[in-house]
From TrEMBL:
Recorded coiled-coil stretches: none
Organism of this sequence: Piedraia hortae CBS 480.64
Protein name: Urease accessory protein UreD
Region called Disordered, residue ranges: 1-61, 157-236
Compositionally biased residues, Basic and acidic residues: 157-172, 210-228
Basic residues composition bias: residue spans: 1-10
Length: 286
């Protein structure tokens, strides 16, 4: 259904006028559409209300106050005497004149840009989220940041210590080499004791050859008709796998735990050993 509003009442005498009649000015309306009443705050926006002091207050005449101020300062007040307080303007120091560097003849643009950046007065500026915001005030750090900074300091100390140790080692090697040259001659340099730890490839010839080391460790390719001369030799003998049950040791060898209880595993292990011993005895007899 249509939502109808009641029409505002209007004065037809002021709305539809004859051509010979002059229209009178309409009254102003506020924010709510109501006419502004005389004596209201909006009607007298330019006038300030005087505050009446409690009791007698300060009843000194303003003319006398102006005379006293003029006798002390020697300057007449500027502006209207309506009680309005003027804000004092703060003096702003003039910015110092900074000479902008000019490009030199034959200078690269990168060098000129570096000179311009160096001449800019940005030393006191603070980047967003970086550096102390106020001098003398410690910036707040989280627990993770403190732990990371402590870790970084430890790494730097360790790196400096290793670097110093490496320099000392090089100095000792140079001193030993100088002594050997002075003793045996300029063309003969005695071999110094090898450094423990990792070595660089190519320093000691065959000792650092990875293929030679692999050939020594691994046997050659086996053919189908190869014959074994001797049984294999074990450097580390396998140990018996014993399980502790109370104070007694139970021998289960390599029977998996999925076979059942510890007693069943022991029985299976005993049967396995008996089968292996019987098979070996049969092979020896044959």
């Amino acid at each position: 259904m249509p939502h109808k509003h009641t029409r505002r009442h209007r004065n037809d005498a002021d709305f539809d006028l004859q051509p010979s009649v002059k229209a009178r000015p309409l009254s102003t309306f506020g924010k709510q559409g109501k006419p502004v009443m005389k004596g209201s705050r909006l009607g007298k926006a330019g006038k300030r209300k005087r505050k009446s002091g409690g009791g007698y207050g300060d009843d000194t005449p303003k003319a006398f106050i102006r005379l006293m101020e003029y006798s002390q300062s020697g300057k007449r007040p500027s502006g209207l005497d309506d009680g309005a307080m003027l804000e004092k303007k703060m003096k702003i120091d003039a910015a110092p004149n900074v000479e902008v560097p000019k490009p030199l003849p034959g200078e690269h643009m990168g060098d000129y840009s570096a000179r311009v950046d160096k001449a800019l007065p940005v030393a006191g500026l603070v980047r967003k989220g970086k550096g102390p915001q106020i001098e003398g005030v410690k910036e707040r750090q989280t627990r993770t940041e403190r732990r990371l900074h402590k870790l970084y300091d430890t790494w730097r100390e360790e790196e400096a210590r290793l670097k110093e140790k490496e320099e000392e080692r090089k100095e000792l090697e140079e001193e030993a080499e100088d002594e050997q040259r002075a003793k045996y001659g300029e063309g003969i340099v005695a071999s110094l004791p090898a450094r423990k730890g990792k070595r660089k490839r190519g320093t000691d010839g065959d000792e650092d050859d990875p293929w030679k080391m692999l050939k020594e460790k691994r046997p050659g390719p086996k053919s189908m008709h190869d014959v074994v001369d001797a049984p294999p030799s074990f450097t580390a003998l396998p140990k018996e796998k014993l399980k502790m049950k109370g104070n007694a040791k139970v021998r289960v060898d390599s029977v998996p735990a999925a076979a059942g209880s510890l007693k069943r595993r022991e029985e299976l292990s005993r049967a396995r050993r008996e089968t292996i011993e019987t098979y070996r005895a049969m092979i020896q007899r044959s």
